[in-house]
Amino acid sequence: MMICLTLIACRPASGQEALVTYRSLSPETALEIARAALEDCRKRGFQVAVAVVDRFGQTQVMLRDRFAGPHTPATAAGKGWTAVSFRTNTTDLIGISGPGMPQAGLRDLPGAVILGGGVRVEAAGVTVGAVGVSGAPGGDADDACAKAGIAAVQDKLDF
Fold first, then answer.
1. Closest listed residue to residue 98, CA positions, set 75, 114, 76
2. Strand order across the 59-64 sheet
3. Cα-only R_g, the chain
4. pLDDT single digits (tens) 5-35
């Protein structure tokens, strides 16, 4: 009696690698974004908190101006988390998640902050983090400060 064994090398059917690499904001760049956003808000006369989160929604930097409300740090971090979680700036989520809209349930998810002021940070078309700003008088003003923070480092992100 003859027994034959055939060994076949196994690898994932899709050809995926065992490890992945990704781009991430350095702590120095995250701090630079936060400082620039805070400074932009100060110039406009707003006392805010600024959070920069990484691509997974974890806070890298949190800055709170002297007179920003006590709710602003948590709200800023929530806006950043929401922007990276849904890969959409939070202002864009407002219209699609209102009452009666197909995405209305987003507003009920734990941790989601559907208010203007959460803006994704992109490098070469890939989301690498987000900025959340809270404390200016309205989401449009929060957005403007967040975008100013990103603009301050855009040349470093365009590689």
1. 114
2. 59-64, 49-54, 126-134, 118-123
3. 20
4. 554 554 555 667 899 888 999 999 999 999 9
